Amino acid sequence: MELYIYYRIAEADAQAFASELDDLVPRLAARCPGLRSRWLRRPESRDGLLTIMEIHHHPDGLPEAMVTDIEELLSSWPSTRIGPRHVEVFTELFTELPHPDVHRRSCD
């Protein structure tokens, strides 16, 4: 399971967001050992707003307790956020291959 969370910030607040992110990353790592997180943004702004995407996953999966910890820590973060955080949960396409001749492939 992976968490995909997106929200918007004002383009003018990008530096403040980056500073908050620098403070957040070690706290998140300490609270959720082994968690792998990434922050992305849409390349364009819309009406002066940037869309930020967080992706959180753990190599051993995300147990419910870790998801709760992530949500608690990030619920009011970032302070520069405009509007709500939108949370999406994704899992592996197949837990088992549907047919022996079907192989998981990545796009290279």
TrEMBL record:
Pfam families: DUF4936. It comes from the Bacteria. InterPro entries: DUF4936. This is DUF4936 family protein. It comes from Sphaerotilus sulfidivorans. The lineage of its organism: Bacteria, Pseudomonadati, Pseudomonadota, Betaproteobacteria, Burkholderiales.
